[in-house]
Amino acid sequence: MNSNSLSEDRFFDPDPAIRGLARELYLTIAHLPIVSPHGHVDPWLFADGSKRFSSPVDLLVIPDHYILRMLYSQGIALESLGVPRLDGVPVEQDHRKIWQIFADHFYLFRGTPSGTWLTHELNQVFGCHQPLNSATAREIYDQIETCLSSPEFLPRHLFERFNIEVLCTTDPAWERLEAHQAIHISGWQGQIRPTFRPDGVINLDAPGWRANLDRLSHSSGVEIHSTRRLIQALEIQRLHFKSLGATATDHAVLTPAAAELAPGEADTIFQRALKGQSTPEDAARFTAHMLMEMARMSIEDGLAMQIHPGSYRNHNRLVFHNFGLDMGGDIPIQTEYTRHLLPLLNKYGNDSRLTLILFTLDETTYSRELAPLAGHYPALKLGPPWWFYDSLNGMARYFDQVVETAGLYNTVGFNDDTRAFCSIPARHDTWRRASANWVAELVARHMVGIDEAQEMMLELAVGLARCAYKL
Question: In the list 38, 51, 203, 406, which could disulfide-bond 410, CB 3.0-4.6 Å?
Answer without folding.
Answer: 406
